[in-house]
From TrEMBL:
Record organism: Amycolatopsis acidiphila
Protein's name in the database: ATP/GTP-binding protein
């Protein structure tokens, strides 16, 4: 089988009025749709649910939300990439 030269960009996902590209991921915590946000497009400050630290403007990160139909725009969470990848090894911290 020949090798693909183009990376898999995921599939288009419609979220209400917003349209974006997301990839599906499965883990012990369920099925998720995940979108990468490049640093140049990160224009707001968010709080990562994995480490309870801020994701500052200009920092690349991921946005994840449940893959089922009940997942809405309000269910989206912005995570540091490392926190998202380590979510199975550690639990979200309590927000102060």
């Amino acid at each position: 089988m020949p090798r693909r030269n183009k990376p898999d960009r995921g599939r288009p996902v419609e979220l209400g009025a917003a349209m974006g590209w997301a990839r599906a991921e499965s883990g012990p915590d369920g099925d998720w749709l995940v979108r990468t946000v490049p640093g140049a497009q990160a224009t707001k400050v968010y709080r990562c649910p994995g480490c309870d630290q801020e994701i500052h403007t200009g920092v690349a990160h991921v946005v994840a939300w449940p893959a089922d139909e009940s997942g809405s725009v309000a269910d989206r969470r912005h995570w540091h990439r490392a926190c998202w990848q380590a979510r199975a090894r550690r639990r979200p911290t309590r927000r102060r």
